[in-house]
Every structure is written in structure tokens, then in C-alpha cells.
Amino acid sequence: MKPWHIKEPQAFQEFKRQIESKYATLCVFVENDIVFIRGGLVIDAQDGRELDNYSIEIQLPGDYPNGVPIIKETGGRLPRILDRHILSDGVACLFLRDERYKYYPQGSTIIDFIETPVKNFFLWQADYDLNEGKSNIGERGHGIKGIIEFYSEELKTDDLVVIKNFLSYLTKSEVKGHWDCYCGSGKKMRNCHFDILLQLKSKISCDVAKISFNSISTFIDHMKKKAND
Fold first, then answer.
1. CB 69 within 8 A of CB 26
2. 74-111 confidence digits (pLDDT tens)
3. pLDDT, tens digit, for every residue of 210-220?
4. Spatial distance between the Cα atoms of 56 and 42, rounded to a whole number of angstroms
5. Which tens digits make up the pLDDT trace of 30-83?
6. Cβ atoms < 10 Å from Cβ of 85
7. For residue 12, what are the contacts with CB-CB under 8 A and spacing of at least 6?
8. Three-state SS string across the chain, please?
9. Residue 222: half-sphere exposure toward Cβ, Cα within 13 Å
10. In sequence order, what are the residues at sequence separation of 6 or more whose Cβ sits closer than 8 angstroms to the Cβ of residue 131?
11. Residue 176 to residue 183: CA distance in whole angstroms
């Protein structure tokens, strides 16, 4: 399958024009049929003054704009550790997969991506350094902790079994109102929490739900084993 910039050359030229006209310090490159954006990104404080700037690379997915771009800090300033939300390969964790609908919803442009999740990520990094290792900007936990935080907030429970049951339903291609509710009330879904399930079902894909379901299942099994040792 041809990558998007070859299938749609006019769209690619418009993409390039938008980036390079809005950001004087960013340029678009194509290497091995992969589109990259590279250069400097200025992070401004609320009062408009320049707070910091970072050397970055954004790799566009072959199915852009459907997939999520990959971003790295390339200046070597940020440590590749989870406490800074950066993986060992340098990839930045901008948001939880399950929360993509909040930060990079379908239909967003590359400008939307840079202006919101990307700049918010580096604003957090700048604030972290400014406050000597403690950012005043909220953050999601790493890995399974972040998954639990998100679903605990959405479902208003910290019961891991309830969250696991909910995710099990979320992995299904179709959900039914006559199923027993994931909350354990004994009621049918249609008479209990069906609206919540349908709402998140419309925002979170089955594939993403499966990843989170597997993660929380493994975590629960680990906690049970630890309790029995």
C-alpha cells in the first residue's frame, strides 16, 4: 500500500506548506517514504514570553491522518525515563491511548497535534525543569497506573474487577443491553450502566481496549500471586 504522501501528492504539498508557513523553525522531509517534521519548537508561557525551545522530530504514520504521529526530542536534553514520559527508544508518551479522543480526535490536523498534545508535553517538561523536578501541571501515571487512573475516573470506581469487566465489554465489536452489567449489580446493562459503556465505546477502539484489558488482567494476576506468596 502506498503511503499517504504518494497517494495524495497535492494534500502532501498543502501539508508541507501549512507546517513551514506556521512554524519558521520546522521543516518537512521525506526519507525512505516516511514523512518527518524536524527542527525547533518554541514553547511560550501564558504571558507570551518564550519559556523554552526544543529540538524535535515528528514521524508521520503511513496512514496519516488516521494513525498517531510519533514524536521525539532530538537535542539530548531530556532523559529517556518514564518519570519524564519518554521511552527508552526516545519516543514521547503524549497521552494514554485510551484518551486519544480527548487530545487528538479523528479529523484533527497536524497543526492541532502540534499545538495541543505536543506543546502541552513540552510545556510540562519545561515546568518540570523550572521547578527542579516537580511540575505544577497535572500528569497521567505511567503504564498500568495511567490506565487504572483513567478508567477509575470514568467509571467512578477503583475496583479493578469492575474496570476489567468493563474493558472486557469494550473489546467486543458489539455490546448488548441484556448482558449483565459490568458493575456487578446483577442488573442487565440496559437497566444499569449501558449509557457509560456506549459512550466510551464510541470513543475507544476495540484494539486499544484489548491492550488495556490485557494489561489490567496481567496486573490483577500479579497482585493475586503476590498476595498468595
1. no
2. 999 999 999 899 999 999 999 999 999 999 998 899 99
3. 999 999 999 99
4. 10
5. 999 999 999 999 998 777 788 899 999 999 998 898 999 999 999 999 999 998
6. 20
7. 4, 5, 6, 35
8. CCCHHHHCHHHHHHHHHHHHHHCCCEEEEEECCEEEEEEEEEEECCCCCEEEEEEEEEECCCCCCCCCCEEEECCCCCCCCHHHCECCCCEECCCCHHHHHHHCCCCCCHHHHHHHHHHHHHHHHHHHHHCCCCCCCCCCCCHHHHHHHHHHHHHCCCCHHHHHHHHHHHCCCCCCCCCECCCCCCCEHHHCCHHHHHHHHCCCCHHHHHHHHHHHHHHHHHHHHHHHC
9. 7
10. none
11. 15
pTM score = 0.88
Q: What is the rounded distance in angstroms from the CA atom of residue 149 to the CA atom of residue 218? A: 16
Residue 17 binned pLDDT confidence (cut-offs 50, 70, 90): very high
Per the structure block, which three cell numbers stand in for 32?
Answer: 525512505
Beta 70-73 vs 50-59: how paired, if at all? Answer: antiparallel
202 pLDDT more than 80: yes
Q: Provide the grid cell at 47.
A: 504571558
Residue in the block written with cell 468493563: 166
